[in-house]
Design brief:
homodimer, about 450 residues, 2 domains, eight-stranded mixed sheet, about 30% helix
């Protein structure tokens, strides 16, 4: 175990090629496996980009280095200075002949979870030992794809003229209604954790910043315990002025489509590691109305009346019928939040949309109400008190342009891109009713 | 007031050039000012990218449109279809002859804060009416520069092989010590809001993800009320494995330098709007030791003994002496957090650094302790109980590589880039002891 490392890494495993035969490299990582066969030892070193085989014949490396290597155990952290030896039979066409070894840190054994194990442990055990679970290439692949997706989303939004903002997560009053909020003790006062940046991004539409986005945590004190919900999530939020629901849907299509393309082009190795069939969606997604959606559900034997929110069963029935990504539009005003703009001709329906992937809702958006009187009326209609919305409502009095926006769940979008069934697979340290650690 | 807009914007004000003489455009924004001089009306329309002059001679626009325009008031939201008329005497060399007007929304008057006013109101009034305050180009410029900075920071980190992560803000136990935490009621349990992603990003160093970054809110229940502190802030955090403090400082220099360059190159207009002298820093920043720093302070008559943290007075004295950006290194171990790696030769000092801009600390970092026994010993030495760190400590038992990292305050960095004296100028909706709204 060392306090100060002798070297710096010169190459990740994936950067070494057989053509580098004879070249000296320094590699660093974890002992993925070690096998001593008499006078030769095989060590597989694992780093972020893959694995590399180190072959140490006693005769070539000498007694001292040989016995040093022999003492290594699984998951020890090592640095190896060695020579690249092209070898057609070795994995990736080369192996490393070690010249010098530094044991950087050792691993206690047995491990509570073995990263080299083929059969994965139960999810709960894995989450308890997330730092070991994350050593498995399949698990790391999910988070590399997630990072790529976030990068792609921001690039699309920058290109579309959006400005990044940070809105507060500590808020004074119960807002929006609907979802439960977590209360905080804020000095002498009570405050709450923001369930979404909705009211703030709308207020920003009155500023002339025009197009804003934020990627940040949201907090929902909902009691349900499903494979699609967490109490802390990462939300990709946009809001755009001088725009309607159709404009917002166009941006959402670009964001989602480009993320698929960027993951496909830049994360081929991770897609392969996950062993998934990765297909690019069309550039434009199907659009069905709420009416059509409930017709599909009813036709499949799931009873649902007009005006009801889609039950889990209805979502599943519709998801079976629809392929990949699709919008559901023209929702009943009754079941959408107070700030949703009603349709001009038929105020019973509104300019809201959900973006679905099969049976999973990944985004929700709408054109919002920008007219003060209509907004106050709608707040009251939902049984809420306009007095709780003073600051928000102020922004609608002095020149608020029409605007629209959406929230896209980063965790759920990662589920779609990596084809995971449980949202906990796509969050490093998930938070649910039961789990608040690590 | 309209529910559905007739048109979409074809050009922002800044996109229109005198060479477009005769071309038809649709512009949208707020009535910045209106002046009727008998049979001619001048309207200045303001959008995100600037202002444009609309000139409406009664004789040319006709009675109906003329009287429509005459009724406009300050801060009404309008769309104008008009013709570009090159005119050397007009601002930017052109004006717009209106052909058609749509009043999209009206503004109640008087305004609680006038965006067109030359003399700004008190900060408190401005923050109360932030949506109006943000209509002022000088205020918007700060947030455009902030967005540019965040984009630049991420680009540098992507280029340096960092992966973006999201760590939880809801945490189970009082961690780190030092700063006060906000308690949350989490279903049946008590939880806390994360004061920094420190322990999580360190745990991730045991995973092999190697280089991670996160830009996210942090929450500190500190009681002080200064121009440099907020209770909710945005922190840019990185952590890198197989690295020491010097490696982390190199990355920090690149991140900060590149952000200066990107703001300088891409936000010239905003720099001009702010009226600031914007100078690029050198690529490498000066480095002084803590010992040298207290010598400077003492020489300037600020009494400070070795082992004390730098007082505000000491920071000011040192800031007067040092120019621009500089590191302070080799801090006494006593005054740095428990996870800071002590120096091999002299454990009284440690591998910590602060990045200062004049008298403002904008970043703090260190090589961390990766050795389990030393870490436990240090936790105890600081009077903390290792039992409170179970999950964190587990990650150090099974192969933790040496690692280093830093946190860079996004709000403070924005202060530096925009030359603001109060952190509240650089946060859309600041949170302090007194302010929890809007």
């Amino acid at each position: 175990m060392v306090n100060k490392m002798k070297w710096r890494r010169t190459h990740y495993s994936a950067d070494i090629k057989p053509e580098m035969d004879g070249q000296e490299v320094i590699i660093m990582g974890w002992v993925h496996s070690i096998r001593a066969l008499g006078k030769i030892i095989f060590v597989i070193l694992r780093d972020r980009e893959g694995t590399v085989q180190i072959v140490a014949p006693k005769q070539k490396v000498g007694d001292e280095l040989f016995s040093q290597i022999k003492k290594l155990g699984a998951e020890d952290v090592i640095a190896v200075k060695g020579k690249v030896i092209a070898n057609e039979k070795a994995p990736n066409g080369f192996e490393i002949l070690p010249l010098e070894l530094e044991v950087i840190n050792t691993a206690k054994r047995p491990l509570p979870l073995d990263p080299a194990e083929k059969v994965p442990a139960e999810l709960d055990t894995r989450l308890e030992n997330r730092f070991l679970d994350l050593r498995r290439p399949k698990v790391q692949a999910i988070f590399k794809i997630r990072s790529e997706m976030l990068k792609s989303v921001r690039n699309t939004l920058y290109n579309e003229g959006f400005i990044e903002v940070n809105t507060p997560k500590l808020v004074a009053s119960c807002t929006e209604g609907g979802t439960e909020l977590f209360p905080i003790s804020y000095f002498e006062r009570e405050a709450f954790l923001g369930q979404s940046p909705q009211l703030y991004k709308q207020m920003l539409m009155a500023t002339g910043l025009d197009r804003v986005f934020e990627i940040a945590p949201i907090f929902r004190a909902e009691e349900h315990n499903t494979r699609r919900h967490l109490n802390e999530a990462t939300s990709i939020d946009i809001e755009m002025a001088f725009a309607d629901d159709k404009d917002a849907m166009d941006i959402l299509e670009k964001v989602v489509y480009n993320a698929f393309v960027d993951v496909y082009e830049n994360r081929k190795k991770e897609i392969e590691t996950l062993g998934i069939e990765f297909e690019l969606p069309p550039e434009k997604f199907d659009r069905i109305t709420y009416d059509e959606a409930i017709d599909i559900a009813n036709a499949k034997g799931v009873e649902i009346s007009w005006g009801e929110d889609l039950s889990r069963e209805a979502e599943k029935a519709i998801g079976e019928e629809m392929e990949g990504l699709y919008f559901i539009t023209d929702w009943p005003s009754e079941i959408r939040p107070f700030y949703t703009m009603p349709d001009e001709k038929n105020p019973n329906i509104c300019k809201a949309f959900d973006l679905m992937y099969k049976d999973l809702e990944i985004s929700s958006g709408a054109q919002r109400i920008h007219l003060y009187d209509l907004l106050v009326e709608n707040i009251k209609k939902k049984g809420l008190n306009p007095d709780g919305f003073t600051y928000y409502l102020e922004a609608f009095k002095y020149g608020m342009p029409p605007h629209a926006g959406w929230g896209l769940g980063a965790d759920r979008f990662t589920m779609v891109l990596t084809q995971q069934e449980n949202i906990r697979e796509c969050v490093l340290f998930p938070r649910d009713r039961q789990r608040l650690t690590p």
